[in-house]
């Protein structure tokens, strides 16, 4: 979309404000709002200034001036503001006009540019399945004298005996009993439908929505695949609309991987493929799961680099509360067709040549999508370039329920890191594949490791409430 087209939208839709947005290292959006009367074509050409030193993990106070450069292809009308507002995603530049090497969106764009220089293909397509919970009440505290969290939901299994409903209406969802029930068990049909309506209005193609496996309001909405950076933009838009629609209904949404103990967590399974023009490169009729050798090598790169990748695709301490056996968590570094207990699954139901893809099931929505998608693409490309064959390295295919294997069989399967600290150590030891094409810089990796190790330490040094259960009477 041209700058002139954006200016026409501002005029035709009576836009009062333009919201300029960017994302930080964690993938959280930040914004500066400018009255539409102050926005001109020049605004899109010179950008909007902001203070980079106030964003964790960005710049020091001595070099704080930074510039947001708007991307006109990303605009959409905000469905939640009282005053008509146009939202636009931005890339981050230095005052000297250079790309900022810690800008996650810029890194995603560099990954797409690098793909085109490799000769492998022209475009990488991604489609995340980002799960979430919608709760009725959330409370938590972490202080010197105590800590707790408590969530509640009208759907929750623990509320079968609750009296506060003015007569308990029943139809609660049992643990692990929430996969696609109809109303009145599924009490969030209308909320999800409203989310879908707003997503479609904002420009996304939504394929379906449904209740997910866990009790207490777990849901999933699938939107159509797109190119790498565009999909990351769409995921930011998706989370924004989910969060704000839930709030309008007097509820609260979270993409936290494991907000509940003892039931399924929320993942972000990422479907991905590479095309050369209109030609899908992952399809070969008659091969295992109809996968080409190119796709096999891509899988090899993903699984070979998975311990390091997970520092970017599962970058929270809470991520590793989900990555435990027994809750459909893909902790095993193998690939399989149709098998949801494998880290890499190849969908085989109703798949066309252009729909042939691989699904990396390990990631979750604490990931910054620009960084995670870029890293996955680079790992897959490294597999293609170096012909990393997962079949020869013991990564499968394994078309069995891995959780039902014997202990001896399980010992032969490599697992994901057990903690964020382990994943960060793996990234420190294995990140050369991320430096190709100058997509990620060495300084970015070093800064990211420091940033995330600080988060891990904050959790590690705090007293956990369950420690009182275990040790108070020692």
Automatic annotation (TrEMBL):
It comes from the Bacteria. GO terms for biological process: glutamine biosynthetic process; nitrogen utilization. Residues 104-474 form the GS catalytic domain. InterPro entries: Gln_synt_N, Gln_synt_N_sf, Gln_synth/guanido_kin_cat_dom, Gln_synth_cat_dom, Gln_synth_gly_rich_site, Gln_synth_I, Gln_synth_N_conserv_site. Oligomer of 12 subunits arranged in the form of two hexagons. Belongs to the glutamine synthetase family. This is Glutamine synthetase.
